[in-house]
């Protein structure tokens, strides 16, 4: 399973994001404590083991059947989901079934090795050195062995020190730090099944670093090179030699909606392979008959692109077998009415809603902390939680941190050190006073989000009612293409963005969001103290340092008002009662994290 260490992912209502796991089905589940909390409807899932990893289903024979699922309305973008333009939980929900990696997150954020692909072990603490062993029979679906060459390509695509003629990174990757983190890259013969990586500094998230992504032999061929030449060019830093290959990696797999690249360009290393794409409607996967690990339990897996408000009806009509709607009061009530026809999965999640200020040139709040404070004073966070979240989770509370969640042990400690509660209660008069003093009454605030999204529309309406009374002019700037390549968010044509990052328990994930110039710092926020704190955290293996710097970072983000956290999402999904092994997860991989194990009961 492929897991990115880079950042948290956009999980609900936005596209661009760090997504994460490419799961391999089956294999013994490693013990790791209790599964994330869940609740079912009248039916129950057949497999719900006590641990949070993949269940051991024993010998699996692929059933000639079709299971249909939806995780949201956004269309598929492409086979390579690791560019800033294509990286989303929606896209990765599909490609993670196709492209394998060395590790994955279980339902509660614990890390497991994907034994189908291979194994890894730490062989030295000083310097931190990891040995990876690829399974001898691991191969791409076109028969090409999976080797160290593929790991070298993964390193090269994340190495910003490889520059093009314009002195910009040669590879347009959502991750850009591996060239500095692991200066030598994967060491081992290009055609071998073993390689080692040596970190320059300690890396607390080394287990989820990405060493397997896209096929090196395809990129090499499209760049007019042999695989060995591509590896040599990446290792030697010969940008001119590999420019054509990099150009293919950046854009060669991105095609017109509904048109998959030629089959020989998109081989699979996972349990499924891409079969067809109906633009705006669905992508169909079929079991990879050349898969070297535990085979997919069901032959065909179809991802439908469906808006939240249509999901329950489609499940009721058996047009879908599993759905992951944005949790709302109405949705849960509708699901409960279906009774024994469905299983309902609920529980805590590491997905959190937030309002991010735009620090770009066109933004209203760019140069004024005071105006950001005025807006924070009038945002009715408690009203939002009370009306939209508590009916789903009675224990829900305002979220006052970004790197920890209310259900985690360290939450109260972190919040107590970082935040004094100044924005917990709406203060319209205080906000109005700031606007008057700054001669800013009437300041227009365009709140952008990926529409349609009823819950976010409701949030914007509540914010408008409160903040307009303070003297702002709040504008609902919801847009179906808000997070699309070239869309409103990418252009910076908004003042506040409303969306959700989804995490999986990474320690250093937020550095890619809040660090100056980092690939997922979409708001252009920059603070030297925050950068330094992240560097200290990301280069330490000491949990005490992690906690201390998390407190420091959270305080700095509050003091400078990077944005406003709102609430942690309650988890909600549902599946047909006759489909086995559908399991809730708290992590960003969403309900499809183990879709390779789904199968219809006889």
Structural class: alpha+beta
Intertermini distance: 29 Å
How many helices in DSSP terms? 17
Instruction: Catalogue the unreliable spans.
Output: 1-50
- Specify Rg, calculated over alpha carbons: 23 Å
Query: Can you summarize the main beta sheet?
Result: 11 strands, mixed
Envelope shape: globular
Total beta-strand segments: 18
Kindly estimate the percentage of residues that lie in beta strands according to DSSP.
Answer: 15-25%
Fraction of residues in helix: 25-40%
How would you portray this structure in words?
Strand 3 (103-105) and strand 4 (111-113) form a beta hairpin. With 602 residues, this protein is α+β, with helices and mostly antiparallel strands. The longest helix is centred in the last third of the chain and has 17 residues, at 454-470. The protein is built from 17 helices and 18 strands. The chain is globular.
